[in-house]
Design brief:
Elements lengths: L6 H34 L15 E3 L3 E4 L2 E4 L1 H10 L31 E5 L2 H4 L9 H8 L4 E4 L7 H15 L3 E7 L2 H4 L7 E6 L4 E5 L1 E3 L5 E3 L2 H10 L7 H7 L2 H13 L10 H20 L3 E7 L10 H12 L4 E2 L21 H21 L8 E2 L2
Parallel strand pairs: 4-5, 4-6, 6-11, 11-12
Antiparallel strand pairs: 1-7, 2-3, 7-8, 9-10, 12-13
Helix pairs in contact: 4-12, 5-10
Length: about 375
């Protein structure tokens, strides 16, 4: 039997392949033209395609030891005089913390009430003018109370534990206040000495994390490229190489900026098993330490701007942990306004207005706690 010719069938099979190949080429050409048009229009990429070389030298004004990480007073004063540092970091005591007075154990021997503040950048006073932070508001409205502020930017709950072990016994506070922000979930997984504090080639300070926590709760040490992105462009490094390549194009930049503008919360898809377990253990340890020192423990649960209209996942997890551990916590969220009480985006700290509102609320709460012996009379406090 003679076989029928298959020539036409082969052509029919090749036709779709050619059509797909042609469509791909046309698509790529179109994307190339759009990319060129956007470049000609001056649209910048989300991530730079090439990073310039950066020279840094490790700064001497940061130390991590028994009470956790803190500034080094003499080195900070020298850096402030030379212009390497300015603003709030220049206002530290000799112990390296943001307090106008040195932590002198002799001062705590008097009969005045005593309060110890633990926390990170919010309690440090970030984005508030000098004299306008909520802790400085407490100090001005409650001059009869001895207040020690040990907050340090980037500090997590495990830093608070180290700090309390050193200064809690010296001050013997009637009240211990922990300012807890939701990035503490990440901070608690990182090494306590997790900051790169350096001076760039321009003579200015560089302060950036050397580690990040990825979506699977792994601690990742940053490479030089990622650190450059964070320091030079004030932007979190890409989660993977694909995101970096996408952000290096102008079309990709449009997509990434659209995600930013829509406020899509990437943390909704992150895992929190390890974060939650680690932070729970640290909060429990700190609670027990404070109780053993006969101090009343209060946590201020700090909302981010995105938590004002509706609490996010991290905020809800933090509230759940505090309730499970029977730790009373203050919620200033209900009295804050996202537009008026926060610094302009992308910063997430309180403005002067936010600090002043929280300072006034805390001032009344501290007075009530000292008279009652508990936070039961405080407004916006959730009790166990």
């Amino acid at each position: 039997m003679r076989r029928r010719p298959t020539k036409n069938r082969s052509k029919s099979h090749r036709a779709p392949i050619r059509w797909i190949g042609t469509s791909l080429l046309l698509g790529l050409a179109t994307l190339g033209v759009l990319e060129a048009v956007l470049a000609a229009a001056g649209l910048s990429t989300y991530y730079p395609a090439h990073l310039p070389a950066v020279e840094v030298s490790i700064s001497p004004w940061w130390r991590c030891d028994a009470p956790g990480c803190h500034f080094v007073y003499d080195a900070v004063i020298a850096a402030c005089e030379s212009g390497e540092l300015d603003g709030r970091p220049c206002r530290v005591n000799r112990q390296g913390f943001p307090d106008a007075d040195d932590f002198d154990a002799a001062d705590s021997n008097g009969g005045e009430p005593r309060v110890l503040i633990l926390g990170d950048s919010f309690a440090f006073g970030m984005m508030a003018d000098i004299g306008m932070s909520f802790v400085e508001t407490l100090e001005s409205t409650l001059p009869e109370i001895l207040i020690w502020n040990t907050a340090i930017p980037g500090a997590g709950t495990k830093q608070a534990i180290a700090t309390f072990k050193v200064y809690g016994s010296r001050l013997r506070p009637q009240i211990t206040l922990l300012a807890f922000f939701t990035n503490d979930f990440d901070d608690n997984l990182l090494p306590i000495d997790s900051w790169l504090n350096a001076v760039g080639a321009d003579g200015k300070a560089i302060n950036v994390r050397k580690y990040l926590v990825d979506e699977r709760e792994n601690v990742v040490e940053l490479d030089l490229r990622s650190i450059q992105l964070m320091t030079m462009f004030d932007r979190e490094p890409p989660k993977n190489d694909l995101e970096y390549r996408l952000g290096s194009t102008r079309l990709g930049a449009i997509a990434l900026r659209l995600i930013d503008s829509l406020g899509i919360d990437a943390t909704q898809h992150e895992r929190y098993d390890r974060r939650k377990a680690t932070t729970r253990a640290y909060l429990q340890e700190l609670r027990d330490l404070v109780s053993a020192n006969d101090s009343a423990f209060l946590v201020m649960l700090i909302p981010g701007p995105e938590d004002i209209s509706s609490p996010g996942l991290r905020y809800k997890i933090a509230a759940q942990l505090l309730s499970e551990l029977e730790i009373p916590y203050l919620e200033p969220r209900v009295m804050l306004d996202r537009a008026a009480d926060y610094a302009p985006p992308p910063d997430i700290h309180w403005s002067n207005s936010g600090h002043q509102k929280v300072g006034a609320l805390l001032s009344e709460c501290i007075k009530s706690m000292l008279s009652r012996g508990s936070p039961a009379g405080c407004e916006h406090v959730v009790l166990p």
